Amino acid sequence: MFENDILNPENPMIDANVTPMTGIHANNINALMVNDEEEDLNLDEINNILDLGEEQYPRFTLAKNKARFLRMVSWYRGKEEWIEVAPLSGVTKLFKQQTKELEGIRSAKMDYEMELETGTLTPSQRSYRRDELKMCKVQEKMAVHLISKLQVKIKSGRR
User: Fold this and answer.
1) Which one, 11, 34, 75, 91, has the greatest CB density within 10 A?
2) Where are the domains of the chain?
3) What is the rounded average pLDDT of the residues 10-26?
């Protein structure tokens, strides 16, 4: 009865791998989605972003985030080197600053996650928010790593 119906998946005229509205092959859509997810998953598996080579750095859509990321890497590298020779008072001060900044990063991250979940964004807004969310995740990762190094220095300096 419905063998020629366009909604019938057994219709020989229908290619189940092509989305009807866009005509894009399903494998291409899945590859795009997996690439975004893989990058996010890889980010979670990385202990220290500063140990990565440039070719392994996270990819950002926005040029401003690429530049921001490179400045952050430089700043965090400098701070890690500085920790080795810094006085305990300076390390303690940086620890307090970074802990407070981490709260702000996590708050922004949560805001971007909630905005993305609403589903009311335009594609360009969605892309922007995804990029900003990735930046927050990267910044959070670097801040947590630095804070842990600062804690170790503070504990070893007080003994």
Assistant:
1) 91
2) 1-45, 60-157
3) 48
Half-sphere exposure of 126 (CA within 13 A, CB side): 9
DSSP 8-state assignment for residue 37: H
C-alpha atoms less than 13 angstroms from C-alpha of 118 in its C-beta half-sphere:
12
Radius of gyration of the chain measured on its C-alpha atoms: 22
* DSSP strands (E only) in 22-111: none
Residues 6+ apart with CB under 8 A from 81: none
Tell me what percent of the chain is helix, strand and coil, each rounded to the nearest 5: 70, 0, 25
Quickly state the pLDDT bin for 57 (edges 50, 70, 90): confident
Nearest of 77, 45, 42 to residue 58 by alpha carbon: 42
Q: How far apart are CA 134 and CA 137, in angstroms?
A: 5
Does the model's pTM come out above 0.85?
A: no
131: nearest Cα among 75, 28, 58? 58
